[in-house]
Design goal:
alpha+beta, Helix Hairpins, Chaperone, DNAj Protein, Chain A, HSP40/DNAj peptide-binding domain, 4 domains, 3-stranded mixed β-sheet
Amino acid sequence: MSKRDYYDVLGISKGASADEIKKAYRTKAKELHPDRNADNPDAESQFKEANEAYEVLKDADKKAAYDRYGHAAFEGGMGGGPRPGGGMGGNGDFASAFSDVFDDLFGDFMGGGRGGGGRNRATRGADLRYNLRISLEDAFSGMQKSITVPASVQCGSCDGSGSEGGAEPQTCPTCSGMGKVRATQGFFTVERTCPTCSGLGQIIKNPCKTCSGAGRVEKERTLSVNIPKGVETGTRIRLAGEGEAGMRGGPPGDLYIFIEVERHKLFEREGETLFCRVPVSMASAALGGDIEVPTIDGGRSRVKIPAGSQSGRQMRLRGKGMPGLRGASVGDMLIELAVETPVNLTSRQKELLREFEDLSEDNNPESKSFFKSVKGFWDSMKG
């Protein structure tokens, strides 16, 4: 069976550019890979055919020979395809051809393309997290808070280079500065981090005695953090450049302050709204009157209780809640009444309450309505 034209195999025209050839092969390699075509018995042979076509067309000299003589340019020897020293053959087809597009397919996953990690020896420092607990009063008014953060800082002895005296690192002999090494296994080329330089692409012959070649040392730092008004649990504050120092002169990471607002004894919070549950006596709830309630700013407000108030009744104090985190808005405070039943009554108090109960038949409309409904329910069940 005669071989197909290499351009037809990749689905391109004869005048295709190098980038177009590479793009076409990449598409075919994904489409025809045997692992993706378990139900197609022809996938493997088509896959090899695409590899063979790309191996020729990616090389300017081989492409010129193929354009002039066709497949005859490579005939002779074992099977009529490009050979080692002039091409490909056997299981080397995919390893040779696919290595050129390996970075395009997996470059981002592996760290930025061929040798991407090794050519930039400086690496950014890690970000740090600090959990900060504050009171509701501090969240209301805002504050300046000093915190102590254990972190890595740039080594002063070598200025972050990791080398004694600040000397420049040398190219890693194992990966030739690429930061990665490759191994061919059958059809696949496997790329992994260089074990000698750990992906940096460079090694230090004479490490700094202070930091042992890391370019950074452990040290506690004291920072001043501005906590704005209105922060809530979960609010995140970013301090740029205050994280771990970078490796070998790389930029530092960031520090993230995560806020946790402690529970308050008097107030509950929901966004900008504050809730305060205030107990009142039966007499005060029945007769009405004024009560004094606290506010989050440390002040006091007088609230009028309407006569006949029940437990759960709410009254709003406008502008007495929490400030908004962004903007000039201020929430409200809701006062919730809790009518308290007296305990530990004296004999006289019990006597007065019984007398009051005998006289209050028409003073409990809710109870009267409820028991009337209960009686109707029982009567209907009997019917």
